[in-house]
Amino acid sequence: MSEESGPRAIAFFDVDNTLLRGASLYHVGVGAWRMRFISLADILSFGWNQTRFLAVGEDGINIARLRLRAMDMITGHTRTELITLSHDIFDSRLIHRLWPETVAVAHAHLEAGREVWLVTATAQEVADVIAERLELTGALGTKLATVDGIFTGQLVDGICHGERKAVVARGIAEARDIDLARCWAYSDSHNDIPLLELVGNPVAVNPDTTLRRYAVARGWPIMHMKVAQLKAARASKKR
Questions:
Q1: 196 lies in a domain?
Q2: Between 94 and 216, whose confidence is greater?
Q3: 75, CA 20 to 30 Å: which among 154, 163, 177, 217?
Q4: How would residue 92 be classed by pLDDT, with cut points 50, 70 and 90?
Q5: Is residue 4 part of a domain?
Q6: pLDDT on residue 233
Q7: For the residues of 45-93, what is the DSSP string, one character each?
Q8: Where does the sequence pass through the membrane (predicted)?
Q9: Domain harbouring 18, CATH code
């Protein structure tokens, strides 16, 4: 990370497999099943996709279809219910799966006076809770339409995924009159290449095969984390 500091820069972080191990969607699904939002068959399907995601990242997984299925599960429920669920899954599940190295980098950016924004396909309410609990600047997630605070099953502006991440990141930088050449972005997925190419300081984090090749060819920094390190950090917290 550059030694340059100052308030006029942003560090953008993907969430799944970048800030935490695995897919946040799976853990939202577990919480939804416990609250009887979805069936056992649904959670088993989410579990299978989580296993594949841990093994190969987003390669070979229909993320868009999976995200849309997740949106279906909260249709008819309220924003308040989803926010409550998000706090519960953060405390019971997500906090134990955070990559300590990536979280440390995010906090180092804050300490240097930069803003830190999550940019993720997960629901805005879930992303907001993660950002809030980690004391980050904010989050840019998938916005779900509501009527009188109840989710309708529709999306606002589509899933925050792929090219869409670059669009929303550019928007928030322009709103703050921040030069993107001074900004950072962190991701594990080749789907986030548009976001990574948007900034002056792209970093690949435990990259999938395609992103690894792309990063090596362009000389981008690559962060490597190991499950053993995550387990060691989890064991340390229990002492």
A1: yes
A2: 216
A3: 163
A4: confident
A5: no
A6: 53
A7: HHHHHHHHHHHHTTTT--HHHHHHHHHHHTTTSBHHHHHHHHHHHHHHT
A8: none
A9: 3.40.50.1000
Comparing C-alpha atoms, which of 180, 206, 182 is closest to residue 194?
A: 180
- Residue written as tokens 């599960």? 73
User: Which residue numbers are catalytic?
Assistant: 14, 16
**Rg, Å, the chain Cα set:** 17
The 10s digit of each residue's pLDDT in 98-135 is 999 999 999 999 999 999 999 998 889 989 999 999 99
* Better-predicted residue by pLDDT, 32 or 45: 32
> Which two structure tokens, joined as six digits, stand for 181?
């050449």
- What are the residues facing 123 on neighbouring strands? 142
C-alpha 136/C-alpha 117 separation (Å) is 7
Q: Which residues 6+ apart lie within 8 Å of 223 measured at CB?
A: 101, 102, 105, 186, 203, 204, 205, 206
Residues 57-75: tens digit of each pLDDT: 555 445 555 555 556 667 7
Q: Are 27 and 93 in contact (CB under 8 A)?
A: yes
- Is the pLDDT at 18 greater than 70? The verdict is yes
Write down the residue that tokens 């979280």 correspond to: 103
Structural domain containing residue 223? 10-238
pLDDT value of residue 60: 44
Cβ neighbours for 82, distance < 8 A, ≥ 6 positions apart = 74, 123, 125, 126, 151
Domain total of the chain: 1
Nearest-angstrom CA–CA distance, 9 and 39? 44
**Angle between helical axes of 40-56 and 63-73 (0-180°, round to 10):** 150
The Cα 148–Cα 183 span in angstroms is 37
